[in-house]
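Hey,

Quick one before I head out. I ran the complex with magnesium ion overnight. Inputs first:
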Amino acid sequence: MLFRHILVATDGSRFSEAAVCYAMRLAKESGAKLTIIHVANVQGYVEVLWHDMKRRYREEGQRVLEAAKEHCQMEGIEAETLLEEGVPYQKIVEAAKRLDCDLIILGSHGHSGLEKIFLGSVAERVVGISPVPVMVVPPDTTVI
Ligand SMILES: Nc1ncnc2c1ncn2[C@@H]1O[C@H](COP(=O)(O)OP(=O)(O)O)[C@@H](O)[C@H]1O
Ligand SMILES: [Mg+2]
């Protein structure tokens, strides 16, 4: 078995979709477990807005995860979903350690979509601190 447990991170962007498709395929081929993580980025809001924003971000995250999970189900692939809150790159790496994942898969960019920049900031930071291999999937990657 190539990989035991793959963690794929999604922010719901088209870049993340490429990563999820790739992760699905790799999980299927290697017989690995697949977990899809989304981190609701709820930092920096003043206290009064906190609860409302937190709820909205959590709901949006839940939708993103459901859509990714449905995509997997259509391909006959079982996937767990995980919704976290906090600093995305930290939570992604923490989850990979906690769940004993042996591979993290990310899109090259996300919602900020600054494609001229070499790598998105979350992707760059995960690559920088992850103790396990990280695979960065470029957009429009064809999955046969
Ligand atoms: N909040 C998040 N939750 C889960 N994964 C994320 C999140 N933000 C980014 N990612 C992952 O990191 C990849 C790159 O996104 P990012 O580095 O944020 O690029 P950008 O700076 O263009 O937004 C995404 O395709 C996704 O795989
Ligand atoms: Mg981003």
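The chain has a mean pLDDT of 92.

Talk tomorrow,
K.
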